[in-house]
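Inverse folding, one chain.
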């Protein structure tokens, strides 16, 4: 629990801790901003651009972190709204609302503005519940997928009439175009990004942000259709045959990786929001470091057990600032892979 200092002048260790947290907050915010801008460049790229991509974009994660970044990067506003006006039907309204719970009230307000753009400019009426506000589940929606958008195709024209879905980075959007918006398309993209590795329902649910039950239903149906492979040797696991898919889709020989942008972006937002609250409060250096550990322990940057052990060790009780700083810099470095 945070410990407020008496209404006295801060001690040197407290000031030093606040400065260190503020510096790290700026580093992470800049890394998230640079990653988001780079991803929007790809999202707005004209078709025919077959540049190889290192990572797959998570569209809802990108949308929400961009709304969070607006006070720092106002130029993202037209970038976001112009894209949504044309392609909102490729976004999951329910998944967006679920992820938005991790963000502040200010982001909720910006999300309602996005919903107005989707509704009025994009004629995508699935966004009506978001305009009304609140986070209650829409009647008839589930984690498995959104209802098909009801719209008249009077969307505003762009310089090009389709997305550059041939790029690896847009694999999620490409599968949503083909199979519909929902858990099946996203789970398939996540599996393909894992190559020949077998994955559990829990791992895919963590990667995509859907519930395990929704992912299990999606994967089981795709396994029945021989779209994915399944093995049950005491633990049910799934994978794709990457050779079949890369040939079919014309992808790079090594499919772009899944970088857990959902987890990275929401963690950065949580950390920066917490850091800003620290700057406004009189806390002991111990309370600041303890608060940092609490925020960091909610972050699961990967499903790799070894990497998670390293992360957890950096934020164990009694860990040093140098250990925590190194781990946090790793988050910034991970985000910089999409530049």
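Residues assigned per position:
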């Amino acid at each position: 629990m945070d410990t407020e200092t008496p209404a006295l002048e801060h001690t040197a260790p407290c000031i030093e801790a606040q400065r260190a947290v503020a510096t790290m907050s700026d580093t992470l915010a800049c890394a998230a901003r640079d990653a988001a801008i780079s991803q929007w460049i790809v999202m707005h790229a004209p078709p025919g651009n077959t540049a190889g991509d290192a990572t797959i974009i998570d569209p809802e994660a990108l949308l929400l972190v961009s709304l969070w970044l607006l006070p720092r990067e106002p130029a993202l506003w037209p970038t976001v709204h112009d894209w949504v006006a044309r392609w909102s039907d490729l976004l999951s309204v329910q998944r967006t609302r679920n992820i938005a719970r991790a963000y502040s009230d200010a982001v909720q307000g910006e999300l309602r503005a996005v919903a107005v753009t989707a509704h009025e400019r994009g004629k995508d009426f699935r966004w009506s519940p978001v305009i009304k506000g609140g986070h209650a589940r829409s009647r008839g929606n589930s984690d498995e997928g959104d209802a098909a958008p009801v719209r008249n195709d009077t969307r505003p024209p762009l310089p090009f009439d389709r997305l550059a879905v041939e790029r690896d980075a847009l694999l999620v959007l490409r599968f949503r175009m083909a199979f519909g918006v929902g858990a099946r398309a996203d789970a398939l993209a996540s599996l393909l990004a894992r190559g020949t590795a077998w994955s559990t329902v829990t791992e895919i649910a963590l990667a995509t942000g859907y519930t395990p039950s929704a992912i299990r239903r999606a994967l089981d149906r795709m396994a029945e259709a021989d779209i994915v492979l399944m093995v049950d040797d005491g633990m049910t696991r799934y994978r794709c045959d990457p050779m079949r898919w890369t040939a079919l889709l014309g992808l790079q020989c090594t499919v772009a990786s899944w970088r857990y942008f959902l987890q990275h972006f929401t963690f950065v937002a949580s950390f920066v929001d917490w850091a800003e609250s620290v700057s406004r409060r009189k806390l002991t250096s111990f309370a600041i470091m303890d608060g940092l550990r609490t925020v960091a322990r909610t972050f699961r940057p990967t499903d790799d057990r070894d990497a998670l052990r390293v992360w957890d060790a950096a934020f164990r009780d009694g860990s040093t600032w140098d250990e925590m700083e190194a781990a946090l810099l790793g988050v910034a470095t991970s985000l910089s892979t999409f530049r």
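The longest strand covers residues 229-232. Residues 5-9, 135-142, 150-159 have pLDDT under 50 and may be disordered.
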